[in-house]
Amino acid sequence: MGRIALVLGGAGSLLAAYIVIGFFVARWLQNLMDGPKAWLAIGTIAGMILGVVNVALLIKKFLGEQNG
């Protein structure tokens, strides 16, 4: 039971990290190329999507180990 809690807690932290990294990469690109402020939203959403995909793969892998 503790292992499941650790995986879910780590998944939340991983998702948050992807969102923050997406924001900072978008801000860096915005400053580098003098882009519009919409890039911040696009970078944050892209980070969130990548994070959700990564968390889904992590959970699928973890549940696959439990079943098999």
Automatic annotation (TrEMBL):
The chain crosses the membrane at residues 6-26, 38-59. It comes from the Bacteria. Keywords: Membrane, Transmembrane, Transmembrane helix. This is ATPase F0F1.
